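Attaching the record inline, Q. Sequence:
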Amino acid sequence: MKKIGLTYISIFIFCSASFSQSQKFNLPKERAHDKAILGFDAEPEKKVYNIQLYADSLIYRSNGSFKTYTYDKLRYIKVNDGSHAGLGAGIGGAIMLLSSLVAVIQVSDDPNMQLRNDAGLRIIGFTAGGAGFGALIGMAFKRQRTYYLHYK
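Structure, as predicted:
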């Protein structure tokens, strides 16, 4: 009798563990977002605001009231995940570095011109300025990430 009871208990624990694992969803680490886009299987995308993500559902504001969805009805969630400041800094810095190096090559090839002693510092300054300007531009462009909920 004890063996049968232990068998049923172990089957129950195994089934509970596998059921709880099948209910895990691919969610963003941040649980609160100002804006998001919800994607459904049969409906068009929906822009939502003030979204809060929980273990089995989400709450968002729409038309002044709060609404709840379970993740079973959703296909994906798109949220803002930072900006493109790093990419902008890299592009701006690279453009200014290449421009400075082309200018140095042109000055070196011209016999009537002479390269200044502080040319290296100027190249570094122009490159840093281009990287800073590129970062400012990149901050204006938000990076959006899509989380497919039923993908593990």
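Residues 85-139 form one domain. Residues 85-109 form the longest helix (25 residues).

More tomorrow.
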